[in-house]
Amino acid sequence: MLRKPARAARINTFPLLAPSVAALLLWMTVPLAITLWFSFRRYNLLNPTLHGFAGFNNYRFLIADPALSHILLTTIVLVVAILAITVSLGAVMAALFNISFPGRGIARVLMISPFFVMPTVSALIWKNLLMHPVNGLFAAISRGLGIPVIDWFGSLPLLSIIIIVSWEWMPFAFLILLTALQSLDQEQLEAARLDGAGPVAIFFHIQIPHMARAISVVVMMETIFLLGIFAEIYVTTAGGPGIATTNLPFLIYQRALLAFNVGSASAAGVIAIVLANIIAAFLIRTIAKRLDV
Amino acid sequence: MSKAPLRIAVAIAWLAALLNFFPLAWMLLASFKTEVQAIASPPLFFFLPTLDNYRGIFAQQDYASFALNSIVISLATTLLMLLLAVPAAFAMAFYPGAKTRDLLLWMLSTKMLPAVGVLVPIYLLARDLHLLDTLAALVIVNTLSNLPIAIWMLFTFFRETPKDIIEASRIDGANVLQTIFLVLLPLVLPGIASTSLLSIILCWNEAFWSLNLSAHNAAPLTAFIASFSAPQGLFWARLSAASVLAIAPILVFGWISQRQLVRGLTFGAVK
After folding, report:
1. Which residues of A touch B103 (CB under 8 A)?
2. Which of 3.40.50.1360, 1.10.3720.10, 3.10.100.10, 1.10.3210.10 would CATH assign to domain A25-100+170-290?
3. Which of residues 101-130 of A touch B (CB under 8 A)?
4. B-chain residues within 8 Å CB-CB of A139?
5. Which of A228, A237, A262, B111 could bridge across to A245 with cysteines, CB 3.0–4.6 Å?
């Protein structure tokens, strides 16, 4: 940005910045250092006699556990499936809501509402009122149509979680992509229409390219949050049946607060941090491009 | 677009909006049913509504304390966060230096640290400091984890304020305090208000730390609602009423601030 700082107006910004920087520095380094330290220790809260340096054993046991690859896969499937659903639906809906129509304001409020619902409420609405195999609405509809009732959390547990979390996050993609679309030059759209482009061609050749950066931001922000899906699993399947819906966050929770194995949980925590950092690097680069300071 | 496809597009948009909202509407309906009506098969769309569930919740002493915890956590976090974030964002927006860009990006990177990666140390630190199941623990954790979002959001608002105004008011003879409180504050107040709303929304709906760091004394509504997930706790009408009360205020906040939220949640990359 081209702005000459007025010489006389320079002030010492250190006292203004120091509290935030110090707080974030502590928040970032101390827990991280402790996690790393514990991940190399033998440390179980239930067995105080067991302690000492564990070397890479926590990592070795974790990686040797056949469940881990399944859990990592579940973590990634959740992220990828929910991203695919929310971003594609969100983009199509944004294009539809870019048309001005009667009651659009109200319809938009209805669209974005699920995003503001606390995750435990969302999960329980779906688990009890909609997906319950006996008393849920879906079961009643199935019976009405004479088709077999689906035991959602029993037979399709991962899909159930994907549906619930997609319902929560589609509004996020929708809202951000709609905001991006509304900055699209109307004359450009008009010109494309005059050249005979239909709505589908306009969507793919003008609107999608225009939303490209917004889509990449949505993908990365969602990825950061979706890698940490926890409450929805906690109140619906508790990671089961078996380990069918156990993702990395739920594994860490089980290891740390249910099994009290601090060493093992910390090793899994380090894996989660590494995974998130790979994505964060891309996200920060995208945002940095837009930042003009 | 010609008439017919336009009508179809609008019809699809409305249908999608109604379908998307349906689970919430269904829950609202269930909150006015009796427990028997709530699990009736076939499901009831028309029935004599009752307020018993809401009465029951207000009669239950617990609910008020969970709601109060949510309110205290949201407000205290927002206040503490503004105290830290406003000066920092002000300094970086109005007096940017050579390091400002790196500082902003570094702050953003702290938000990328997954909460679950530091669950163990935070839990153990809270335990050793006797902060488990206290409001203070949740306020501190919420403040720190949302601080980067607040600083960024305020920064993008502050940066849009004309910088010359500071110089102009100085020339007109205003001192620093007068400049800040009489000239600057009225201009940046909408930005601070939007940031506060986003902070309240995020804190109110925060579930990960609430579930892991609180038991009963400090448990907010997110944790209270989770307690309904127990298999024996199949009180759907009661659960629905409790849920409606828990989400209603935040839904309204969300509707009011939807535009500004985009800016905060994308770190200024989309607005």
Report:
1. 17, 21
2. 1.10.3720.10
3. 101, 103-104, 107-130
4. 41
5. A237
Burial A245-264 (b: 16+ CB within 10 A, else e): bbbbbbbbbbbbeeeebbbb
The Cα-based distances of A97 to A21, A169, A183, B117 in angstroms read 41, 17, 14, 38
**A28 interfaces chain B, CB cutoff of 8 Å:** yes
Residue B198 lies in a domain: yes
Q: Report yes or no: A223 at the B interface, CB cutoff 8 Å.
A: no
User: Domains of chain A: which residue ranges?
Assistant: 25-100+170-290
Backbone phi and psi for residue A220, each to the nearest 5 degrees, phi listed first? -75, -40
Distance from CA of A262 to the nearest CA of B (A): 7
d(CA A98, CA A127): 33
A234 Cβ under 8 Å from any chain B Cβ: yes
Asked whether residue B121 is assigned to any structural domain, the reply reads: yes
Counting the structural domains of chain B, the total is: 1
CATH number at residue B155: 1.10.3720.10
Cα angle value B19/B25/B27 (rounded, 5°): 120
Phi, psi of A53 (to 5 degrees): -80, 130
Distance in angstroms (rounded) separating the CA atoms of residues A170 and B64: 32
Per-residue pLDDT of chain A (293 residues; tens, 9 = 90+): 444 444 445 678 888 888 999 999 998 888 888 888 888 877 777 777 777 777 777 788 778 788 888 888 999 899 999 999 999 999 999 999 988 888 888 999 999 999 999 999 999 899 888 888 888 888 888 888 888 888 888 889 999 999 999 999 999 999 999 988 888 878 888 888 888 888 888 888 888 888 888 888 888 788 878 888 888 998 888 887 888 899 888 988 888 877 777 878 888 888 888 888 887 787 778 777 766 66
Q: What is the pLDDT of residues B174-223, one digit of tens each?
A: 877 787 778 888 888 888 988 898 899 889 999 889 988 888 888 898 88
Domain range for B169 is 61-265
Q: Within its chain, how far is the Cα of B27 from the centroid?
A: 21
Q: How far apart are CA A269 and CA A253, in angstroms?
A: 10
Residues β-bridged to residue A261: A44
Query: Closest Cα partner for A98 from A172, A175, A151, A155?
Result: A175
Contacts of A124 in chain B (CB under 8 A): 225, 228-229, 239, 243
Specify if B23 maps to a domain: no
Query: Would residue B271 count as lying in a domain?
Result: no
Chain-centroid distance of CA A71 in Å reads: 17
Q: Which has the closest alpha carbon to A177: A108, A227, A77, A117?
A: A108
Residues of B with Cβ-Cβ distance to A291 under 8 angstroms? 101, 104-105, 268
B17:A107 CB<8 A: yes
Question: Full-prediction pTM beyond 0.90?
Answer: no
- Decide: residue A19, CB within 10 A, 0-12 exposed, 13-18 middle, 19+ buried: middle
